[in-house]
Amino acid sequence: MSRLFARGRQVSRRLMRWDSGSALVEFAISLPLLVVLVVGIFDFGGAFNQKQILNNAAREGARFGASQPTNDLCTACTATPGSVDAIRYLVDSYLLAAHVNDCGLSSAAAPTAGPPWAYTANTGCAGTLTLTIDRGYSASGALNSCPAVAEVIGGVTIYAYCTKVTIAYPYQSHFNNVIQLVSPGATFASVPLINTNATAVNMD
Fold first, then answer.
1. 85 CB burial (10 A radius; 0-12, 13-18, 19+)
2. What are phi and psi of 161, to 5 degrees?
């Protein structure tokens, strides 16, 4: 009888060792998948939050620009109009207030030609932030990249010019660092651009 109990204890110990070994193997296999999943969720959530902030910044810039006078605009400017530069500073202030790295937008050199006017900044960022401001004028005096807002009055089509603010922001992603745990050799853009824009009809 004692031999039978001893034999049973030996079998139980072997089964326990086998169970712990298989659990370790299962954990080793599932850990990379878990890490990729967690980092993916973190990255997507961060990008989504960043997109919302950029949407609001572009919207505020477009609204502010639409309320500014258009008498400082020209069809072939050699210097950035004051109203355009004011939009740049407002967008920059919004980003900083939302605790988003502005990549040095506040100190970026003003574009010397326009419209549209494009500011680029890459100080302290993994990529280049581009802020493009289009107040609706092109060299020909027609609508440029703003959507045409037209009203027919007495058989004449009247166009309302717009202010359009476009932001391309370099988002620092960490997903590329972990995707290779699951698929060696796979690559993912480590600094994808988040693009957004907003348009408002000029009041002046």
1. middle
2. -75, 155
Compute the distance between CA of residue 43 and CA of residue 34 in angstroms, rounded to an integer: 14
Delimit the domains of the chain by residue range.
2-201
Residue 105 DSSP one-character state:
G
- Reported as a pLDDT band with limits 50, 70 and 90, residue 193 is confident
**Residue 134 dihedral angles phi and psi, to the nearest 5°:** -125, 115
**14-35: average pLDDT:** 63
3-state secondary structure of 147: coil
- pLDDT confidence band for 182 (50 / 70 / 90): low
Q: Which has the closest alpha carbon to 170: 124, 123, 118, 128? A: 128
Ramachandran quadrant class, 95 (left: phi over 0; alpha: psi -120 to 50; beta: rest): alpha
Q: Name which residue leads in pLDDT, 58 or 25.
A: 58
What confidence tens digit (pLDDT) does each residue in 79-138 have?
888 889 999 999 999 999 999 999 999 988 888 777 788 999 999 888 899 999 988 754
Q: Which segments of the chain does DSSP mark as H helices, in order?
A: 2-66, 82-97, 175-182
CA distances from 166 to 23, 32, 177 (A): 52, 38, 30
Helix (H, G, I), strand (E, B) or coil at 158: strand
Single out the residue of 143, 139, 146 nearest to residue 115, CA to CA.
139
